[in-house]
């Protein structure tokens, strides 16, 4: 599981040490050398678990999909980002954190609690 790219769809085989990594930053963290650049890359699809090679010299739109299961593996990377917010569960399941801002009715102002006997005659 890659902590740099959250939606990684393939693993990359590093041509320098022949080990599998989710991204080049994962390789840099573990290895004592830089990743070697090559024109032919070996990928392993995380959906169907099959390996395939891609020639980076002639890479086009059809090469953005796994040849075995048609999984689209060239996506915009989702990286972890920090934000300030309130931790809590889904408010649709547990709404104790949501303040009820509706105006409460005074029970004494109901039309059923008033005495209209003097108007009846």
TrEMBL record:
Keyword Zinc-finger annotated: yes
Statement: the UniProt record of this protein carries the keyword Zinc-finger: yes
Protein keywords: Metal-binding, Zinc, Zinc-finger
Molecular function via GO: zinc ion binding
Residue intervals of the CHY-type domain: 1-71
InterPro entries in UniProt: Mito_Tim_assembly_helper, Znf_CHY, Znf_CHY_sf
Classification via PANTHER family: CHY-TYPE DOMAIN-CONTAINING PROTEIN, ZINC FINGER PROTEIN
Protein name: Zinc finger protein
Record organism: Rhizophagus clarus
């Amino acid at each position: 599981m890659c902590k740099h790219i959250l939606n990684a769809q393939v693993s990359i085989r590093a041509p320098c040490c022949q080990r599998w990594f989710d991204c080049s930053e994962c390789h840099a963290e573990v290895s004592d050398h830089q990743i070697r650049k090559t024109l032919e890359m070996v990928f392993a699809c995380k959906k169907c678990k099959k390996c395939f090679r891609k020639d980076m010299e002639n890479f086009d739109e059809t090469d953005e999909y796994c040849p075995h299961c048609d999984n689209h593996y060239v996506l915009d990377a989702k990286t972890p980002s920090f934000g300030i917010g309130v931790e809590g569960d889904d408010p649709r399941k547990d709404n104790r954190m949501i303040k009820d801002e509706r105006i409460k009715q005074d029970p004494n102002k109901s039309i059923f609690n008033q005495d209209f006997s003097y108007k009846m005659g």
